[in-house]
Amino acid sequence: MHNKTIADLAKGLRSGEFSSLELTLAFINRIKQYSQLNCYITVTEELAVQAARAADDRLAAGNANLLTGIPIAQKDIFCTEGVKTSCGSRILDNFIAPYSATTVEKFTKSGAVMLGKLNMDEFAMGSSNETSYYGAVKNPWDMTAVPGGSSGGSAAAVAARLTAGATGTDTGGSIRQPAALCGVTGLKPTYGRVSRYGMIAYASSLDQGGPMARSAEDAAIMLQTMAGFDEKDSTSVDLPVPDYKQGLDNRIEGLKIGLPKEFFSEGLNSAVASTIETAVDEYRKLGAQITEISMPNLKLAIPAYYVIAPAECSANLSRFDGVRYGYRCQNPADLTDLYTRSRGEAFGREVKRRILIGTYALSAGYYDAYYIKAQKVRRLISEDFKNALTKVDVIMGPVTPTTAFGIGEKIGNPIEMYLSDFYTIAINLAGVPAMSIPAGFVNGKPVGLQIIGNYFAEDRLLNIAHQYQQVTDWHLQIPKGFE
Amino acid sequence: MNEQWETVIGLEIHTQLATKSKIFSGAATAYGAAPNTQACAVDLGLPGVLPVLNKEAVRMAVKFGMAIEAEIAPYSVFARKNYFYPDLPKGYQISQFELPIVGAGHLDIEIDGTSKRIGITRAHLEEDAGKSLHENFHGLTGIDLNRAGTPLLEIVSEPDMRSAKEAVAYMKKLHELVRYLGISDGNMQEGSFRCDANVSVRPKGQKQFGTRAEIKNINSFKFVEKAINYEIDRQIELIESGGKMIQETRLYDSVKDETRSMRSKEEANDYRYFPDPDLLPVVVNEEFKAQVKSTLPELPHARKQRFKQQYLLDEESAALLTSSRQLADYFEAVIKESGCEARLCANWVTGDLSAALNKAGLDIIDTPVSHERLAGLLVRIADNSISGKIAKQVFEEMWKNAATADEIIAAKGLRQISDTGAIETIIDKIIAENPDQVEQYRSGKDKVFGFFVGQVMKEMHGKANPGEVNKMLKAKLADSHLKTKG
What we know:
Low-confidence stretches of chain B: none
Distance between the termini of chain B: 77 Å
CATH class of the largest domain in chain A: Alpha Beta
Mean pLDDT of chain A: 97
Strand order of the largest sheet of chain A: 1-3-2-4-6-5-10-11-9-7-8
Number of domains of chain A: 2
Number of strands of chain B: 15
Shape of chain B: elongated
CATH architecture of the largest domain in chain A: Alpha-Beta Complex
Distance between the termini of chain A: 11 Å
Helix content of chain A: 25-40%
Helix content of chain B: 40-55%
Number of strands of chain A: 11
Largest sheet of chain B: 8 strands, mixed
Strand content of chain B: 15-25%
Largest sheet of chain A: 11 strands, mixed
Radius of gyration of chain B: 31 Å
Oligomer: heterodimer
CATH superfamily of the largest domain in chain A: Amidase signature (AS) domain
Shape of chain A: globular
CATH topology of the largest domain in chain A: Amidase signature (AS) enzymes
């Protein structure tokens, strides 16, 4: 039953094929069995069993919804009341959140069963899951390869059937890139669609939570619960949430797909490129019209991102000072010592690097040259997307330039690591929604197809992804050894 | 004051806005609660929390902006001011930097009877920090975050003041205004109204400003005056003895009455301001402004002018009565309730009532004598039921208990006697008992008349209508004179 999608599990729970408790225990056993993947930072077995029993009661009483009794897991960036919330960092290793994130609360209310908290790059800063204080996560398709990041634990856990679905967050590709490298379906919603309250901030103007699952239909079910205005998050948008499942079966004949030529240039691995082309052909067969487009400012996305995101993170991470919660150094001599040693000992290299970059970019005398300039670039990139999306319905392209790279391969070279996020970063700067769906394999490792849509067009994206998944079975493949 | 030097002063005033909850969270703002009992997840800066702007704070800022005839920014932005301090939970303060909500405005002050306009550069919204407690922690420091997130309006003046006296006048005027508008309780002991003073000196006639020193966190009018005067003397002395001013931040020590260097410009923080991505820009549209405008009370200056015209009050009384909105409201309520002449009401409010309040250290809002009760007393003065002198006695009773003037007058039998028969009887008696004084009066000693009035009043326990007594006594004395002659 662990191979079933959320949609099928919901049917099984209703037909009496299995109970939520049985389902939950099956996943808990698998989590223990495959602990070498290092997907979970915390397994909340007791809470899960309690929640499963409550869900079974609710199913019996007939007031359940599609997520009631479904085991899911939360990226450890979401605060969970009474449960350790580490954000992949030593500085929060002892932090038990006293409240729950809006997203977590919504899942709890829907009756979903939380299995535990998923591993991630420290404070969501990384593209390989190697910056986690809790060690790297392994890719179930190749145990020597990275699962991607920062939502690497989420992607690997969904791929290895250690949960039916997972939450992720995406600041520069952190849902889509690991989804692509692990062969799962991931959706980064429009900025403002999902509440950020209780989601530990990395770069506030870019962070967005979203679902990671085994199919577009499952992603639709999860997003239905996650999306919506939250009065606790001023940047969440007060727009009605459509019924995401309802539109899945719409035909996509006549769909206009744009392929930015900047996405198919020299950086892209040729085998990945031809996999993407094959996937686009599949859409052509479904009646879509394909046109080449140009988005001239895309090349500026990485430098702009690496000013804006670090600038915001340098302030966002100031609260981790050893004063009120989290790690505090031993026997601080004075206030400065308390700050410098607590932060120095408990933050990892990548986090420190970005705090330093951001602090520098915001400093007097540099602010205009870096921060203001980057904001101007950001507007240009947004314009590129807006213009393109008046000519075409969606934009398609790769998610990553290559398939999953080896653990240890790029961690010593941050610039190379940053450049591998070229296809995902611009989307966050513009704020538009985008998905990664499984589109094939190169040497046994998954390749993801990226679908980018207009603001708040998540329903359209899910429909387009679902239609592809009706005629392909890439998303149904199971990594060897995890059947 | 030194003749060759001119002082230049600009003030930055932090006034705590009287909202019920904090500027970015739902926690209460009440003063004096046990440490950390009024700090929620947002105020503690827990991971993942987000600020949500309290609209009431925006309303109050706009109200202030309108009162100083300032431009209200249609679009203003919150920024993060980054620095580390234990009582600053997030490691940054949410403030406004490049785009404040209130732009340039002005406030008129009165100095020695002439009016002077002080420019206000801007006013912006921000959150307060918590408090570090250094006592009773055995060498450690305690942190109380109750105050963290309390809304502040920072009001920045132009460097338009030329003396400590002007600075104090401006500060008092501003203090009166924020209380008038009901946007701050202005309580200086509790830190609801505090001042940073930028002070510099320059040779008279020089256009360019001298190097300034900023004196931080002064929380009384008296200390502002003393700190500035000390600083002026220090700067002149320094420059005259060949020294050079450095731009620095100084602290005023009220015990030693001196300012001391805190940090120089070089040591100053680089706050790395940038727009807070957690908050949307504040949009103030015409509709919102119209709504706020409809709640704007009559402002002190306009009210004073009206009092002078409508109630024919002199400048001093009108100024006194409009010095606080509550006092002015009280005064007008007394007029309305009693229907008495404004002059009588003004005399009592600025006289006996104010004196009693001062003596008891109370504000008008805490007065034990409500406007209804005072009105009840004034009605009895106006209709001659009691004399002014008896009224003072009744007022003293009213101050001590909740009885109305009529109840007190009745209980103590203080009603004025205007019954001419009763008065006549007493007058006849006094005239009969004092033939010597009658003789003196007759021989032209008019002063003796006072003696007769006193005797009659004494006999009647002060309750006789003095006008009636005067009239009848004069007639009787003249009459008895005629009788003897005849």
